[in-house]
Write a structure and sequence with these properties.
Structural class: alpha+beta
Strand content: 15-25%
Strand order of the largest sheet: 1-2-3
Order of helices and strands: EEEEEHHEHHH
Number of domains: 2
Radius of gyration: 22 Å
Shape: elongated
Largest sheet: 3 strands, antiparallel
Number of helices: 5
Oligomer: single chain
């Protein structure tokens, strides 16, 4: 590892600890040349799929887009940023576990819908209205009726 202070590549690991629930290893290193210490983080290289959009375009999976959609849907709702981050983490993990190299954007959208359905019904309807592109009030009302029916059955 190259020292950020003197650019020497000789160092020794002074301390190693797990971070982020075991997903990252934090290492304290000491440069053998300048004796200064610095921290590095080690994580498994993630292999996330390419997302195939409705129009056929392909783009790399982007957790930031999921977060932006979740934040927009949860705007002015009693949902913490930490909860939104945890939802994005779960979605990203499930997508990664699918092991696909390419994935239709509909699969990503449905994962978001499933999480929001369990988290907050208002956020779910907000996201669904954009994601499913409701054409009129009848489609919107059908979704609300389905939600109301599910709620009564619980």
């Amino acid at each position: 590892m190259k020292c950020p202070f003197c650019d020497d590549i000789e160092d020794k690991v002074v301390d190693s600890r797990m971070a982020r629930e075991g997903e990252v290893i934090r290492r304290r290193r000491e440069c053998l040349a300048c004796k200064r210490r610095y921290t590095t983080y080690e994580r498994v290289e993630e292999s996330l799929p390419v997302v195939v959009k409705k129009d056929g375009r392909r783009e790399p999976f982007d957790r930031g887009k999921i977060l932006a959609g979740l934040k927009k849907a949860c705007e002015k709702r009693p949902i913490s940023t930490a909860t939104i981050e945890a939802v994005a983490d779960r979605i990203e993990k499930r997508i990664q576990e699918m092991g696909e190299t390419e994935l239709p954007s509909t699969v990503v959208g449905e994962e978001v819908m499933r999480e929001l359905h369990q988290l907050d019904q208002v956020a779910y309807v907000r996201f669904a209205s954009v994601y499913r592109e409701f054409k009129d009030i009848d489609q919107f009302m059908d979704e609300l009726k389905t939600l109301a029916r599910e709620r009564r059955e619980k």
